[in-house]
Amino acid sequence: MDNRTEVREFLSTRRAKISPEQAGVPLYGRRRVPGLRREEVARLAGVSTDYYTRLEKGNLSGASDSVLHGIAEALRLDEAERAHLFDLARAARAGGREPRRRPQPSVRPSIQRILDSMTTTAAFVRNGRLDVLASNALCRALYAPVFDDPSRAPNLARFNFLDPRSRDFYPDWEGSANTTVSILRTEAGRDPYDRALTELVGELATRSEAFRTRWAAHDVRLHRTGVKHFHHPVVGDLDVAFDAMELPAEPGLTLTAYTADPGTAAEEKFALLASWAATEERAAAVDG
């Protein structure tokens, strides 16, 4: 991915989102562009208009941390956007490199044992490209449509945009799609030279207009905790809490766990899913 293009489009889309009223900028005359003008961002950030213009055109390599902080404040960037800006600057300082294919990280047996011990929690480990690298039985039951193609490793982004079943599986499909693209966009800023990520983005952009539109928005987010909504083919509607935790000993990997509140219908449906998963696995063992 071209760093200069990424910088230019990220900064220009953030600038377009901030109204003069939000930034405390006086309004004079008619405005031809949405959001702030470049000279207004420059003034708020404490730099010259010429210098900010060069930065927004993609020349971020020489920007100091203090300048980046000033721009982040001027554009009212949230935590995820601020981290993304610094990731883009870090990549710019490293200079252009050819995309490289990284070896697929392996999940240590001890991590798999932790997953397997979580019998009332659906849990999996993923990388920044949303490849599912390890999971427990309840997760495989919860995400049954994602796991039902044995010829290919499960990938949550491909399922979201390329499998028509995802629109029924995710009741809030729009929200799920937005989150998926934001996670991939965040990862692209963190590791712009990951060839597998570049290929995945190219595949999704070629095959899905919904993905292309969202990718062009340059939105990023930190996906740490919240509530996930499912419409499962076996147990129906299911609302569960999720928590995502990075694995410090495995850089780039995240463990995500889904739990149901005690005494709720979701807890009962999780128990039903666990029973169904055990039945399916026993049947598979017999067939095998």
Automatic annotation (TrEMBL):
Residues 35-82 form the HTH cro/C1-type domain. SMART domains: HTH_XRE. It comes from the Bacteria. SUPFAM superfamilies: lambda repressor-like DNA-binding domains (SSF47413). One of its GO terms (molecular function) is DNA binding. This is Transcriptional regulator with XRE-family HTH domain. It comes from Petropleomorpha daqingensis.
